[in-house]
Write a structure and sequence with these properties.
This protein has 328 residues and is an alpha/beta fold. It is built from eleven helices and twelve strands. The protein folds into two domains: 247 residues, 3-Layer(aba) Sandwich (Rossmann fold); 68 residues.
């Protein structure tokens, strides 16, 4: 088995609002191995981005707070580190590509200055050397005329150029783990394909692990080795990508697969929708959070939270339908 780079155990992140406590993550367990690309997929609001922000401890308090669990990276529990030590890891050993690059970049500084700042902070280089490194990173990501782009402000660049610049910043310190939060949001399909090809090439070149967050199962199929399916703050299925598509096991995963237009009618005969709505996480359903929308729900589903059951090699499902299998 591959070495574990990052291990999340029992992670619970809540948001304390005037209307109540939003239980955003309800005990997440997830391992990320060295050199792999693992995806997190699910509907909007299921907790994918909160998981990423929890890993790098960017949950803003108030209102957000990590209440339980551990996040172990290279043998260190990130949740127990002093803020100064966490800042040395964030952007250096663990980097993140944010969902909206236009909002992630500071509008009053040039792209080159912002990339160079990261290099100066973590690699202790002088400004002139850091500036040259920033240009090299822009060139590395396939940006034409990197010297001109380095001197440009965020509003002067297109969405695709900004996303490449964000990737250049994230990779400037050669991180061990790259978190990509919806890296192709708002990009047209041509630029999306270029960004995905770039990420695959960078993984091969740098050997970094990638946590890819998306709602697009097509991107998951193209990019990932393994995938975790999230619903309402829980990971409900975890497997290699091939197993998820060939043998989706959790009723929610089956619903997602059936909602994709396809010529394969093995799991569903027509394009389907999942009935009902995403639950209010201030008052989440008891037991399995998916049971109000599940066509295979049993009485106990509304009372007990299911454990993890093995349905194949490296394939685990949190559902009572598979209770006869080996526990994780």
């Amino acid at each position: 088995m591959a070495d574990v780079l990052l291990s999340i155990k029992g992670l619970k992140t809540n948001f304390y609002t005037y209307t109540g406590v939003v239980k955003a993550l309800d005990g997440i367990d997830l391992d990320i191995y060295k050199g792999e690309t693992i995806g997190l997929v699910g509907e909007t609001g299921c907790g994918k981005s909160v998981t990423a922000l929890s890993i790098i401890r960017l949950i803003q308090w108030p209102p957000g707070k990590i209440d339980e669990g551990s996040i172990t990276f290279d043998g260190k529990d990130l949740l127990k580190l002093p803020l100064r030590d966490m800042q040395k890891i964030r952007g250096n050993n663990i980097s993140m590509i944010f969902q909206e690059p236009m909002n992630a970049f500071n509008p009053v500084y040039t792209i080159g200055d912002q990339i160079a700042e990261v290099i100066m902070l973590h690699q202790k280089k002088k400004k002139k050397e850091a500036w040259q490194d920033a240009i090299e990173m822009l060139k590395f990501t396939g940006i034409p005329a990197p010297e001109r782009v380095a001197k440009s402000y965020p509003h002067e660049l297109s969405g695709g150029m900004l996303q490449r610049s964000m990737i250049a910043m994230a990779l400037s310190c050669k991180p061990k783990l790259l978190i990509a939060d919806e890296p192709t949001t708002a990009l047209d399909v041509t630029i999306e394909a270029q960004i995905l090809d770039l990420m695959k090439g960078l993984k091969t070149t740098t050997g970094a692990s990638i946590l890819l967050i998306t709602h697009d199962l097509g991107i998951i199929a193209e990019m990932c080795d393994r995938v975790g399916v999230m619903y309402a703050g829980n990971i409900v299925e975890l497997a290699d990508v091939g197993s998820i598509y060939k043998k989706p096991s959790h009723p929610y995963t089956v619903g997602l697969i059936c909602a994709i237009p396809t010529l394969d009618t093995k799991h569903c005969n027509r394009l389907a929708t999942i009935p009902g709505n995403v639950p209010n996480l201030i008052y989440p359903p008891p037991g399995c959070r998916f049971h109000p929308r599940c066509n295979k729900a049993m009485d106990r589903c509304s009372k007990e939270k299911p454990g993890w059951y093995k349905v194949g090699e490296g394939h685990y499902v949190s559902c009572f339908l598979y209770e006869g299998g080996d526990k994780k």
